[in-house]
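User: Here's a structure from my thesis project, written as structure tokens. My advisor, Dr. K., wants to see whether a designed sequence matches the one we expressed. Can you design one independently, without my sequence as a hint?
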């Protein structure tokens, strides 16, 4: 075999390896989604005299013993309109939605996280990843990009970890950060994940996970907006941010019922 033939054979082998790598990665996400999606829930409030009775606020996900739910504090903690309005989670699909009341077990306003506790039957839970992802990692997140407008169907989006950056946040999130919350997020030593991936207003609180294992590496916190909040739907920026999962683990350690 000539040198040219050997070179061509090596090129053919390399092309075969490269062409098989992408389908394998795609298959990993396809295989893990049935595990991830049952643990992703809607966060909202219930008021029986309201139409509709349930108002969607954010996405959340179940961890630990199946009775702990994590989401963004900025999306979940606004005051209730009356003593008859209840905070909780929404599960199910289509017209078969179910509302389960929840209580706030702990808040981490510095990292914009909230831990909700449920009672009753545990739900499928996601595992937190102990090691942070590296820049350039291929990740994914699942949530409700437009809330219940699309019928509570969890949607999954791919994202690349573009940078691990200081928490000097350049824009508001889907519901707007108060000046106090923004100043807290800008404290020295706090870093966030900058993602090359499109998140929408309802994605606040979505789990950011490793597509190969389903382990959660972060919590979607905000997306950079072009113009108005409504413009995020028609003209998304493609730049989103996530809170690293280590802060979720710390919140759970400090929470009643957390693990």
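Assistant: Designed independently from the structure alone:
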């Amino acid at each position: 075999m000539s040198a040219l033939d050997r070179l061509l054979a090596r090129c053919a082998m390399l092309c075969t390896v490269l062409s098989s790598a992408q389908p394998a990665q795609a298959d990993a996400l396809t295989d893990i989604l049935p595990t991830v999606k049952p643990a992703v829930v809607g966060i909202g409030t219930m008021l029986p005299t309201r139409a509709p009775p349930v108002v969607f606020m954010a996405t959340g996900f179940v961890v630990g013993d199946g009775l702990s739910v994590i989401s963004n504090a900025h999306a979940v903690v606004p005051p209730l309109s009356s003593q008859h309005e209840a905070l909780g989670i929404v599960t199910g699909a289509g017209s078969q939605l179910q509302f389960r009341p929840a209580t706030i077990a702990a808040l981490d306003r510095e990292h914009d996280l909230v831990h909700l506790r449920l009672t009753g039957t545990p739900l499928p839970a996601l595992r937190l990843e102990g090691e942070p992802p590296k820049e350039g990692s291929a990740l994914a997140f699942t949530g409700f990009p437009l809330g219940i407008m699309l019928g509570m169907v969890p949607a999954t989006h791919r994202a690349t970890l573009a940078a691990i950056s200081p928490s000097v946040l350049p824009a508001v999130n889907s519901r707007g950060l108060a000046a106090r919350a923004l100043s807290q997020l800008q404290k020295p030593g706090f870093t966030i994940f900058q993602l090359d991936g499109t998140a929408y207003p309802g994605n606040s609180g979505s789990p950011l996970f490793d597509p190969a294992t389903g382990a959660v590496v972060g919590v979607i916190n905000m997306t950079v907006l072009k113009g108005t909040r409504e413009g995020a739907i028609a003209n998304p920026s493609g730049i989103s941010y996530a809170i690293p999962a280590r802060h979720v683990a710390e919140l759970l350690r400090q929470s009643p019922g957390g693990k």
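When you compare it with your expressed construct, this may help: The longest helix spans residues 3-36.
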